[in-house]
Write a structure and sequence with these properties.
This protein has 44 helices and 30 strands. The N terminus is likely disordered. Pfam families: Cation_ATPase, Cation_ATPase_C, Cation_ATPase_N, E1-E2_ATPase. This is Cation-transporting P-type ATPase N-terminal domain-containing protein.
Amino acid sequence: MKSASKSASMIITMFTQQNQEMQLAQAKKEFDEMAKEIADRRKKLLFQLDKGKKKENEKVDASKAEKFKSMDEHRIPLEELEQRFQTNVKTGLTKEIADQKLIEFGKNELSQKEKEPWYMKLIHELTSMFAMLLWVGAGLCFLAYGLAPEDPSNLYLGVVIMVVNTLTGIVTFFQNAKSEAIMDAFKNFIPPETLVIRDGQQQKFPATNLVPGDVVVIENGKRIPADIRILESNEMKVDNSSLTGESLLLLRSPECTNQTNPLETKNLAFFGTLCKEGNGKGIVLFTGDSTVIGQIAGLVESSGGDDTTLRKELNVFIKYIAVIAISVGVLFFVLGFIIGYPAITNLVFAIGIIVANVPEGLLATVTVALTLTAKKLASKKVLVKNLEGVETLGSTSCICSDKTGTLTQNKMTVENLWYNNKKYKGMNREKMGPKYHYEYDLNEVGFKTLHETAILCSEATFDNSLPQEQQIKIQNAIGLSQQQKDQKLKEAQEKWDQNFQKMTCQEKPTIGDASETALIKFFQPINDILQTRNSRQVAKDSENKMAKMPFNSTNKYAFIIVEYETQDSHFCLLTKGAPERIWALCDQAYNNGKVEQKDEKWEQSFLQINEQFGRQGERVLGFSKLHLPKDQYPIGYQFNLDKMNFPFNKQVFVGLISLIDPPKDSVPYAVIKCKTAGIQVIMVTGDQPVTAAAIARQCNIITEKTVDEIMKEKNITFEEAFHQSNALVIHGDKLTKMAIDDEGLPEDEKGRQLQEWLGKPQLVFARTSPAQKLIIVAGCQRKGHIVAVTGDGVNDSPAIKKADIGIAMGITGSDVAKDAADMILLNDDFSSIVVGIEEGRKIFDNLKKSIAYCLTSNISELLPFLGFVIFRIPLPLTTVLILCIDIGTDIFPCTTYVFEDAEIDIMTRRPRSQDEHLVSGKLLIYAYVQNGVLSTYCGYFQWFVTLYDFGYNPSDLLFIGVRETVLPKETDVYDPSDPWFGNSNLKAIKEFENGQCDGDEGFVQNKTEIDWIYANHAKLDLRMAYIECKDGKLKETFNWAPCNVNLISPYTKRPYCYSTEASNYGQTSFFYGIVVGQLTNYQGLRSLKNAGVYQGFSNYYMFFGFWVEFMLTVALSYVQVFNTIFGTRDLLFIHYGVSALPFALIMLLWAEGRKWMIRNSKSNNSCPSWWERCVVF
């Protein structure tokens, strides 16, 4: 039975291996055929394509993006390579040729982008579209002052606008001072010195002097100094995670293993990657900008981001305002000519109307609001480098996220254990703590055996040496002598040792590959790994060397023989390797400390668990051991590792350990929140499709069977399975094939296949290159998405910069990714993006509220001008008081909107569409037609009440500005019993002797208009001026109202009643009427749809804003200096906006009633109600 069982297991194992090899050969054949077909089609298209220089240039640029894809240096024979590079693989370049090539190819460093001077950045901030609108407004103010110098208010207005515009530009400049160190970050990849063979001699000199054809020696722990082809490899392994996204170490060898994709072949090592194991030798193929990293740097520069969505929205808003302001200004400029006003007067009023329409304080409000939000996000570990990026994140509808280091921890971790024919969850004891209920038992024999075997078979250790990056930084420091550098290295090492002792096992750096690192970090909290290894002495081989063999890709196993005293044995053979290989070496297995023969049950269990681990994207290691009998292997036995003079194929199976780069703990829930908010999360990684799909499942990006799984399960074609699942995994080769298929097609027809893929809500792109990530991001943008890209590696930086909002990891992220990003997650927590999205959506809502608030007062600032021009009433509001509203009383409450709590539904509504703008027609109607008119009523009602108290009936004010009259002298006193009412100038007119008159003959030559704008007639009692001839007698033009408030003007020292000084007083009260209206307007705008009561009163900044607003009004009214500058007057309480309260309350009731109708009006079908469609802004 035992032999039969053994034969069956061997047959199954051999069949499995042969079947896999056949499948691999068939897949390779199909891929080669497809590659050949693609190459042929490319040649045909390139031969036929001749459509002008423009398209030729585009093709050249496209080819430069991934020139390394078409290289052949990795596959041509060495003899041809030597000839091409004028070198010798043994002796290297000669000094003469090397010097010549250094002149030809330049230094081995990346070209630095010329930095824009700081003053140019400041000028850029001061000349944005919004800032230019304000500069034009200031210029118009100066022009108006030049035309009418008797009114200094235009001068004040122009100066203050300039100051405000300059200050907001400076604030934005400092807040948006983004680092220009992208190229410097790439330079950090260059090791300071490298070993080179020239003229047959090995020598060390700066890596910047390397040239193509140099033969370099690669040492363990050093960075690769250029793109090289491997000539010799001593188990050399490199970390390519920054380029491909794979966290596993990759073996390098002289053999070309992939002729079509250089990134996949084993005989190339790339500039900037790290040699973590072994050593080797290679020939330099590319240096500087020609390296793969250099081409990615080119992609970063060429993929420069567009304007942020907020910048676009503000530009649209500015166009709206500019068109409205200029149109109304021109209209009334023309209307003034029709009415008969002088040209200068018309121009001054047109300028006043234009300036009144420009919300001067809004730019400062936006800047302050974004700055405050950025600081708030910083407290939540989200660093905003570009202020406008805050809002962009809020409008994000698609997140393209890298896998390694972003969604995952970028470190291999033990996931599962399989021993005693059972699976156990491999929870880490240091992480979960002593109170956690673990599935495995530390005292169980099977676990102890697996523990001991795994540690003795591995060589990884914890590394307390100073990190390579810090060493390079110190060695590359400019201006330091070598002695100073050595001293700094010593100090850095001492500081590092102190920090190292405080680190947990999970935080400590290691020496060894990722798999062994995962093992020691799992077992170290259980028992010190050095103690475990020191408990067993390594046996000696026939050459008196340690009897152990490292892992290699041919054998797929590593083993060690240790001295292990038992009752029947002196030595023990322990083996680690690929699970299929280890299983094939065993004919027995441990089960609860007992040895059992492998049978069909064991075979079935092994195949099932190994397949399950593979489907889950886990890397699996198998372990076995064998106690060598005493009688055959006595003490002092000479082991021969080449001849295998010990029973290597008769081991006892111990168990399996599966490893995975796990998702960060907070990621799965964060992805669910993104989906709830209507945001699609797409994984874009350089890792293998199986691993990517498995991690996507754990992250909740994929929640159902993928198209590929359905295709295999039902044995149907990809096209048939495509419509049966919402989950799709796309290999990068499909993107390459799509790009080839699209060549020669018109622009509008390109990328149709990608658009179809992007229609899937659950999507993963695997094995993608940096250029392909750019294509994916561009495709998402073309589909109408606002795209956020997250990443941490060099390979992510082009896509990060291309995205609408680029997000980099702050801890594990490379400097390149951080510098390309608009936002950095300081805690590397993907869930912080959700916080950022909520804040971004909130700030978009709050900016809407701020704009509606500011525009409301614009109407109440504009209509007084229109009343002054059309109905010739005294000017109710001066341009200086308009300024006091825009950048005085309005700006503080407007800014406090940023502190308002988010709407209840903010994270359940879908992302705003591209058609939903910051300033829409509905918002303009609400601000201008609805609240703007009500706010104007507040001001006018207060103004009319005030002037009535000073003797002016509202009806008498109509067209009072065009009434001509005979002015009295300042010394005249009003006398109603006098035929001339006390007007001595009127009495002196011959036609009006004895108080009699005959028509208007006496008025024609002596009439002048009252100056209601300036103080020229402020001391006159207008009851003596407004006289007319009626029924042959001189009579008063108006039935004057009683003087209810007998106040003396501090400027004229005369009563306000019946004088033009009452107009100055009335202007101040009109101003206060608008302020009162804005207080209730603020309350109505605190929420867009929810009842205001639900917002509560927790926004203490709102009360501070109201207090500042109140203090400003008090200062403007009661501080004499401000009275002089702004033309205001000290008011009584009854004129302090009290009369505006009725209309202010109507404004609040309308706002709440409108929101109630939006919430409660439901349509009879699935479409939104009329209120939702036409009223919600």
